[in-house]
Design brief:
The complex is a heterodimer of chains A (242) and B (249). By secondary structure, chain A is mainly alpha-helical. In chain A, 76% of the residues lie in helices and 0% in strands. The chains are: A mainly alpha (242), B mainly alpha (249).
Chain lengths: 242, 249
Amino acid sequence: MLLRCLKGELQKCRRSPVWLAFFVLPVFPAILGTGNYLANSRVLENGWYSLWSQHTLFSSIFFLPALLGVFCAWQWRLEHTDHNWNSFLTAPVPVGAQYAAKLILAAVMSLLAQGCIGLLFLISGKLAGIREPLPPELPGWLLWGALGGISVCSVQLYFSLVMRSFAPPVAFGLAGGILGLMLTAQGLGYAFPYSLLCLGMRANNPQMELEPMPFLISALAYTGLFAAFSVRYLRRRDAPGE
Amino acid sequence: MKLLSLEFFKCRRRKIVLVCAAVLAVELMWMLTFFTRQDEEDMQWGWMLLLYNLSMVDAIVLPLSVATLASRSCELEHRGSTWKLLETMAAPDSLYAAKLGWGALVLAALLSIRTGLFTGLGLAVGFPGPVPWGRLGLFTLVSWAVSMMAYALQQGLSLRFANQAAALVCGIAGSFLGILSMLFPPALTRCVPWGYYGLLALVGMNWDEMTRVTDFYWRWPQLTDIALLLVWGTAFLLLGRAMFLKKEV
């Protein structure tokens, strides 16, 4: 059932240029981070680790939450337009499975975005002339970051489902990212979903530390909680009249 | 005038106040966090420090906020398929002007409140020296002018494409390019529409690499930059209007 829903969601994505944003937009924080690194190369002496700190600072705060927000808003926009709620809610599959397909697709996009960031990081490092060996922790940073991204997707999917409008959830995504950084700086990062993205990617974290258990518990709790809110909303609300 | 007042009617349940409040809250939180991290010596720069950082925060926050406001105003027409109805009663260029006028008024209100809020913050924190009312007024005007240029671009996109993802992705890209352009040399920054938040900033910064001491100074926007801002704004306005007028309903 879930596989069928996933196939359906993939078909909805066909010919949509939304994936393009995931390839084009990460280039900006990469340039910004590398520029910052090169401008302050005397102070930033830690090679790949310093470059990563510059890359992630901009991407995890401003760009990733808003970008994931765009994808989530776009996913629900398909249902919000052209009376598609009627077919969505009367499809012979549980709404939970349909929602799960959307969340899985968003999770894949989160992973894809991290892959893109990783690739751009490697290219930037080579262009910046870093000669040290690659940090072995890089796949871990990306995977934990993707996991944090899934929590953000779950929250954004809920907002975009309830608001039925494209722009405000995306703007809240950006606001959430900025708030996430502030809360992380206050030591409250594990309690806020948008901070999980910064924590997972070790943004603004010179020691590159992460406490796996609180992170996993928080990520699972936020993903599960907002997924449950969304499914509850889908079960209780009728298709809106246009 | 009637069309303009109708725009306000249409947006009455669009939670515009909430969006504006969110923008103000983010800017306020950002600046509060920034000020709590400054030491006594840095705080002596007071109003200059405020205006310098505010132009940076504007470059990050306002492009996406402007995109959101423009999208809120234009999306409702796409969703309600109201174009046919509207254009039988009013000329398309008047509709376009009314939407732009709505954006201009909302942004003027938002940015005036923002300036009031930060002036209050400066007084509460006790920045040294008298309140630079003229500079604060000019800063509001500059922020409004740059935001209106971005609004013309966003309105053009939001009206042209029913799918608001295009306009929003442009807004996110604007937020990035806005801050990214602060690292560019001025000649290159002039080619980035969102870079004008930084380019027209009223406060400059000197950083001494040897002593690692930072100092700030007042500066005036250059006439060339103001003229270029007008060129960008006019170009976006004419392009957006032409695309809207050609749109088949």
